[in-house]
Amino acid sequence: MSVTGHTSSGGRTESPQGQQKAASIRDVAQAAGVSYQTVSRVINGHPNVKEETRKRVQEAIDTLGFRRNATAFALASGVTRSISVLTSNTVLYGYAATLQGLEEASRAAGYALGVRVLTPEDDLDRAVAAAADTAGGIVVIGFDQLGAEALSRVPANVPCAAVVEAPPRGHKPDRPAVWADDREAARAATEHLLALGHKTVHYVAIPASTGTRRSAGPRAEGWRQALKTAGVTPPAPSGKGWDAQAGYEAGKKLARNPDVTAILCGNDDLALGVLRVLHHAGRRVPEDVSVIGFDDAPHSEFVTPSLTTVRMDFQGLGRAAFGLLRAQIDTDLPASAPAPADPALVLRESSGVREA
Amino acid sequence: MSVTGHTSSGGRTESPQGQQKAASIRDVAQAAGVSYQTVSRVINGHPNVKEETRKRVQEAIDTLGFRRNATAFALASGVTRSISVLTSNTVLYGYAATLQGLEEASRAAGYALGVRVLTPEDDLDRAVAAAADTAGGIVVIGFDQLGAEALSRVPANVPCAAVVEAPPRGHKPDRPAVWADDREAARAATEHLLALGHKTVHYVAIPASTGTRRSAGPRAEGWRQALKTAGVTPPAPSGKGWDAQAGYEAGKKLARNPDVTAILCGNDDLALGVLRVLHHAGRRVPEDVSVIGFDDAPHSEFVTPSLTTVRMDFQGLGRAAFGLLRAQIDTDLPASAPAPADPALVLRESSGVREA
DNA sequence: GCCCACGTTGTGACCGCTCACAATCCTCGC
DNA sequence: GCGAGGATTGTGAGCGGTCACAACGTGGGC
């Protein structure tokens, strides 16, 4: 198999004169025989402009192909109509879907959207600052430690919203934020497994946004709480990452243990890895072991066995976060923040009655 | 299952005075007892500044927490150090991974990155224009018709690069672009299936970036060519979308036909759907039918049966596209465009020798 | 017939920074 | 001891828009 990986430099028709720079407001003014201020009025739809004048200016705008310079507008008016998203990932389903919601909402509102990925090597203050002075506001995706940390570094005077893990009971984040009730969802999923006859439920954790303990985070809490309520001592959670490989690794030990009949996973990728290792270990799903994931990634419905999981409205969270941010920027707006859908347990093939 | 979906408005400590606006270059100048131009020299690392002066200015910068206003800089210098990505999707693996490569490269180069999703309802010219005057250059992800169309609308005077499907043999795109040799990869995959003893190979297509025919696009071409070379008449391709659901739909007919023993899919999501429908039809993979996907999405290794697929270096394509764009903006740069890795067939469980 | 209010338009200053150029200061060589 | 020339610094103008305000009409009310 070969590759061309070819590169072609486009045939620019770059005349020696270079491309004439874009028409400015003053060019238009001259062409229309008015002052630049009048042009400004026209492009901003100011009421007090004589209809005939407006028409003349509009024609000049059209023939010159004038477009208002966004940079100059931003400088002069102080309005930026753009937001910047800070996230540690853009590919994992939860992040990607949240980003999608954010993009959709911002586009609908006429805002440009910037993306800045955070890495462990980053100087977070610098990253936040860079985002802040590029855009009119910041949205932080704080599902993980990196995001949460970045969020805490956002200067108080920059408009900011976040989508985060559900905060500990009774706590409220110090910045506007949206979240779904993962805790309750995890509890419901766990209770479902218990109701299916499983004596206990094991948990393969996603990294928590706060601290490094596997037992931290709302999903783990919900799971633990359900077990406790049922009078079961929660087994130690496992897991050390977000992807299927991490699920595979964490699942090795569980797969070997015949007492393990039910596994809740912090996300669907993890669950996929668990499913895989169970398959390798010769344990059938759901006959021998039930597996439940989290997030309802697009492919979860199509793997075999199809994955029972908790559907999360990440797009909705993204949209809501944008609403929260916009409310700070366009104070005096209808502040419409459509509520995200509730998490919902989706029953599929990977979970079933305990047979033993 | 309930949801809190809670919203908390952060406790802004907004004194009646409001936050004093950020320090400007002149504030710093005054504090340091120099002219604003000297401050400008310091922040731009201009050589001819007396060491002692530089130090004094730097101190003023630090104590005032000065940060150069990006908007003003852009306006005055005409340099934007930001790029904008136009894409019809951000979640599908190929797109998301390309975007990831783009983000990574732009961040490394100190460029901010904007994302603008294209929809069928969009006024493409408007969308392109908006992207163009927000950023210093545009990268178009042209895997599909929407992207390809947008690319063709980019005005000649705006710096632009694209990552596209491999263009027809002998053709070169009229804009700088990168692509992988999907055609060759598809051919290799098809030949592999043929070599496994399959009499023919069916194809479930992804939408082509040009035209609407399922038989268009490099992947389809490579597949068809391999069959023809082997003296086999290519069966009609199926497929009408990008996702697993589309694969499932397209696979229904194939699953019913006992003569179908090998299926090549335009991407891994499609393949997942095909796998699923084959499972429902009681046909074993790879014993009864071999399936090969395209792209090597992260989960393809972990589904059961694991998916034989063609690994694509989308991140590399993204990085290369950024390099191409940057070369137009920072003319006079080392123009380092690291070549993307070649597509590579990854053999896994879903393909095997024909047993019949 | 006059004044005032309002609709319409133009002027100046400024957003925060850069550029080009002029002005000043030193230092060196003879 | 003096002029040349480079190092260092300051000034003016401008990027392409916006804002505030002044300057025009023009019509209606008295």
TrEMBL record, chains A, B:
One Pfam family it belongs to: LacI
Biased amino acid composition, Polar residues: 1-22
Ranges for domain HTH lacI-type: 23-77
Transcription regulation as UniProt keyword: yes
GO terms, molecular function: DNA-binding transcription factor activity; transcription cis-regulatory region binding
Region span, Disordered: 1-23
Entry keyword S-adenosyl-L-methionine: no
Keywords, alphabetical: DNA-binding, Transcription, Transcription regulation
Protein name (database record): LacI family DNA-binding transcriptional regulator
